[in-house]
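Notes from the 1:1 (GR / supervisor)

We went over the backlog. Supervisor wanted to see one worked example end to end before approving the batch request, so GR pasted a single chain during the call. The sequence is below; no edits were made to it. Supervisor asked that the structure be written out right there so they could see what the output format looks like.
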Amino acid sequence: MEMKTGIETFDGVKRLIIVAAHPDDLETLCGGTVVQLVQRGVKVFSVNCT
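Structure output shown during the call:
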């Protein structure tokens, strides 16, 4: 089995929930990835646990 890396890891994903501890964690830690996923048509949701 071939291991995928980078944005290819999300091939076929239609929805994604990201759980973060603080409101700005999503933007600070994975904002670039989220932008790429949204551009690919993935619906991204975030849950902040503060």
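Supervisor's comment: The helical segments are 25-39.
Batch request approved.
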